[in-house]
Structure formats: C-alpha cells, structure tokens
Write a structure and sequence with these properties.
Number of strands: 6
Number of domains: 2
Strand order of the largest sheet: 1-2-3-6-5-4
Structural class: alpha+beta
Number of helices: 4
Helix content: 25-40%
Strand content: 15-25%
Radius of gyration: 20 Å
Order of helices and strands: HHHHEEEEEE
Low-confidence stretches: 5-25
Length: 175
Amino acid sequence: MSAKFVAGVGLCALVAPAIALAQGSAGDAGSNWAAMAECGAIRNADRRHACMDDVLQQAGVLSGAQVAQEVREEFGKENRPAPVAAPRSQPAQASAAPARPAPLDEIVSTVATVRSIGYHRVRVTAADGSVWDQTQDEDLLEPRQGERFSVERGAMNSFLCQVGRSSRYRCARID
C-alpha cells in the first residue's frame, strides 16, 4: 500500500469523528460541513489540512495548544520547509479565524543523554525525547546531561545543533 493511501485512510478515520463533534458543538452543522467541504476541494495536502484545522478550531473541537504541541513534536522530522497555510474564503458566520502557531525555526531543550557514534560525532537525546545525530565532523566539548541544547533551521532544509556554549554543528533528527 502506498503511504498516501494509508495517510488518507488515517486522516479520514481521525477527521470523521471530529466533523461529527464540530457539527454538534458549535455553530450551524450545515455551515460547519460546508466549510469542511470547501477545505476538501483544496488540492495541496498541507493547505487542505491547515484549512481543516482552522474549521475544527472554530468549532471548538481542536485547540491551538494541541496544534502547537504537534508542530513542536514534528520539528525536524521532515526534510522540507514548514507548510504555509493557504488563504481561503471564510464561512459567513465566522468573525475571525483562530490564530495558527507560527512555523518553528528553533527548539530549545536540555541534554538527556549523549553517546559517541563515530569519530568526532555524537548522538544527543534531548529532554523532549527528540534524537539528533551530528552529521558534520567537529571536535566538540563533551556534552553533559542537563546542558542547554538547541536546534535551529539552517540553509537548504538542514538543521544546526548547539550544546551549551559549543559552536553550532550540522545535525539531523533520527527518531
């Protein structure tokens, strides 16, 4: 089975109960369904999902905090720029769309564990559970548990890690 098919089936399984809740909890069921149908017509998957998230937030089914947490958990897992929400016409009764979290450019955590994975390379597990491998040979001071650990987006969909006050080095998320 293709990944798109599995993702589509999974999305349907997740969205169907949310649509039912949205119809019964906030606003007019017909306008909620019309807004979801409008989102379904968007051909770009990232934009379509962002549109559906907006409708679910307006209906009170999905909170902005849930979306922000998911964005943080997914940071660095895909080697592509963060999706940009597509402009869409608002349903007539909607006064203002809920604020979407801005795409993350950096996460900051602390070092949970560190291990060597080769000459001048380390694997850092952050306190938030993300695992990052050093991809650029560089002699670093030995990272220690509890030290500040940050990851930021670099050029050409790469990531730069920094442990404590060390210099930044190229890294990739592996979990």
